[in-house]
Each structure stands twice: as C-alpha cells, then as structure tokens.
Amino acid sequence: MSTTLLDMSATELLDVRSPQPTRMRAGETGAAELAARRRGASGSGRTPRGQRLGAARGEGAGRRPGARTSHTPVLAQELLGLLDPRPGQLAIDCTFGDGGHARLVTERLGATGTLVAIDRDPLAEERFAALAEQAACSVRFIRSGYAEALSLLASEGVRADVVYFDLGMSSMQVDTRERGFSYSYEAPLDMRMDPAQRLTAREIVDEWDERRIAHVLRDFGEERHAGAIARAIVGRRGRAPIETTQQLVETISAALPAPARFAGGHPAKRSFQALRIAVNDELAQLDRALPLAWGLLREDGVLAAIAFHSLEDRRVKRFLAERARGCICPPDLPVCACGREPQAALLTRRSLVPGAEEAARNPRAASARLRAARKLGDDRLAGAEQREPGG
After folding, report:
1. Which residues of 305-335 are buried (b: 16+ CB within 10 A; e: fewer)?
2. DSSP class per residue in 202-257
3. Which domains does the chain have, with CATH numbers?
C-alpha cells in the first residue's frame, strides 16, 4: 500500500539533498514530487493534496487552502545577526512555517551547509518544496512537532551549529481562514496545526467541563474573566453546539463586562490564544524542546527563539538564564564551593523587539521578543562577555 504525505508518522521524513542526489529511504518523498503536488499535478492519478483537504472540510469557497500570501519574517535581520550562520554549518529551523527565516539562513549556509526544517503543518511541507527547488545547501524536512523531531535528530547523533524557533502560529495559518485560528473570520472551530490529530477547539468548547475550560483560558490565555467566559460557553452549548469562530466570539463578548469588551485589543484574543495553545500542546512542546535543542548544539553553537506572548517568552528567558548562570553559592562565602560553571553566554542583555518601522509595516510583529545564547565549552571562561547583534 502506498503512503501519502498526510499518512506519514512523526518519524517518517522527507529528506532532500542538493546538489548531489541521494537514495531516498522508505516513506520519503523527493522535492520534485512535492513541488508537483503543490502545483496540483499528479502522475499517479491521485487527487492533489490541497483539493483533498478542501473536499474533506467543505472549503470550496474563499481562499484556496494554503494559497500564498505576502509573508514577512519577523525580526529577520536581528535573528541572522545573532545566529551568524556560515558556510558548511548545520542549522535547524524548528518552526519552518512559510519558510521566511529559512530562506535567509540557507543563503548563508552555502553548498556545503545543511538546513533541517521542522513543522507539523502539511502546508509548511508544501512551502518547503519551493525552498528545496532553490536552496544551494542540502535540505531536509521532518513533518512532526518540534519536540519529537529534535528527539529524533538526537537519536541520530546530529550536531547543529544553529537552532532557532519562531514560536506560535504562523501568518500562513492565520490567513488560511477555514482552519479557524482567527477570531476575525467565520470558520469551523478547528485550530489544529496538524490536521491529522484528533483534538480540535470545537471538542474543547463543546465537551470539556466548565472548570477545565476556565483553567485553559486562565493558564494559557492569562484571561482575567476566564470563569465568566467558561460559564457562558457551557450555558450556550446547552442550547446549541458552538461550532464556528464567530459563535464563540459572540459568546465571549457577551460574557465580558463592558469595560473589558472595549478595552485595548479584540475581546476574544486571549481566549483564542488559550484554545490554540491547548489544542496543539504548545507550551509542553516548548518545555520538552528547549533542552533537546540545547543538547544538539555544538560548542559555540547558537540557540535563538522569537516569542509572541509572555508564556513563551518567560520559558525561553528562564531556560537561557539558567544555563548562563555560574556560581550558586551564598554571597557571603569567600570562595566558590559549588564549582558550577555557566553553559551559555547570553547574546542579548534583554529581549530584542521590532523597531517602530517594522511594527508599522507588519503589525503582527509588534509583540515579538527575540532572545539568544551561545553554548560555551568546558574550557571557556565563566564571565563570557555579552554582545548585541553584529557585535
């Protein structure tokens, strides 16, 4: 029985090598075949994947699933300055998405370098096909969550010079309206980054109990009115199922006091963030992925992450700060007794944020925070100097 890309498990890989061809392993697909599927061609008589997804979800109207939209990678030059990818190095993009950062990195890696791209979204896999046709370096795609993919790479003995994350949902996902990530469009309540997984936002909203929903909204959305919103959801679904994004927006808005409804930002923003995080297990993925990514780095390798809300940013900040910490002895001890040496040198004194010009040009970048650290070797001095991008 043949295996389609949507049937591939988390450990089945797309492996594309350039400029020299390599033998493909079982379950892998070449860049040329992926590109043909992206264009809607199929030599096997199968329905192109984009059409199959549309038919399954009733997406006949509106934007074609996965249609290209204008994409601007956030903090692109700042990220490149911190990563400083060089010819011959191996870089891991843990959140490939639309491939904006990856394209810039591949330009630096050259013919002897390698980019490993990771994403669980099938649309990202299609975007990767376009990059694979043009990249001068070797490229490889792993379709899975980044925690599972990094664990796989560790089991293969891969060592990286650069590892980076662009956390949260991608513009590609927001702009594919029928996937239900956005509170601005009418769509089914879905929010899955991997359409093959079972849990959806609709299941949470229509089946979880009030206490559990409130916990999600409070812990993952930092929503002050989590209890009231959860009660409203349970009350409305008792009359009829909540099936679409706009039905959920109406329910949330009705549950909020007037000052909260008309305060800064959309009244459903925090709730939609919370549901998306819960559906995709994003924070648990990040907690598992950060130590795995650090373990893959070679000495002098760089780990960087762009976060878009405080729940992600705090995790990245704590993780890097803990590895940059040296002696933990009480301050009144005259000499160090713990022998602890730092594993990292922080590359930014505080998070880097978009400038006014970038935020005006790309409003989605406004909340971005970039942090990075360099991995130290055992023989490096504890007091490694910090530097800013380009320093």
Report:
1. bbbbbebbbebbbebbeebbebbeeeeeeee
2. HHHHHHS-HHHHHHHHHHHH--TTHHHHHHHHHHHHTTS---BHHHHHHHHHHHS-
3. 5-172+283-375 (3.40.50.150), 196-280 (1.10.150.170)
What one-character DSSP code corresponds to residue 300? E
- Mean pLDDT, rounded, for 30-42: 38
User: How confident is residue 71, by pLDDT bands cut at 50, 70 and 90?
Assistant: low
> Is 31 in contact with 133 (CB distance < 8 Å)?
yes
The position carrying tokens 């930014």 is 348
Structure tokens at 88: 């011959």
Helix (H, G, I), strand (E, B) or coil at 99: coil
Contact 167, 286 (CB under 8 A): yes
Cα 184–chain centre separation:
21
How far apart CA 7 and CA 22 sit, in angstroms, is 23
Q: Which of 92, 136, 131 is nearest to 115 (CA)?
A: 92
Q: What's the pLDDT tens digit per position in 10-19?
A: 333 344 333 3
* 23: pLDDT strictly greater than 60: no
47 CB neighbour count, 10 Å cutoff: 12
Closest CA to 149 of 173, 133, 165: 165
What does the alpha-carbon distance between residue 356 and residue 210 come to, in Å, rounded to a whole number?
41
Q: How is residue 328 written in tokens?
A: 């933990």
Share of the chain above pLDDT 90, in %: 63
Whole-angstrom distance, CA of residue 136 vs CA of residue 19: 7
φ, ψ of residue 306 in degrees (nearest 5) = -105, 120
Which residues fall within 8 angstroms of residue 21, CB to CB, at 6 or more apart?
none
- Tokens 């991997």 -> residue: 194
Asked if residue 230 has pLDDT above 90, the reply is: yes
Contact predicate 365/359, CB 8 Å? yes
Average pLDDT over the chain, rounded to an integer: 81
Reported as a pLDDT band with limits 50, 70 and 90, residue 186 is very high
Whole-angstrom distance, CA of residue 177 vs CA of residue 60 = 12
Instruction: Look at residues 191, 220, 214 and name the one whose alpha carbon lies nearest to residue 203.
Output: 191
Burial class (CB in 10 A: 0-12, 13-18, 19+), 338: exposed
Mean pLDDT throughout 99-114?
Answer: 96
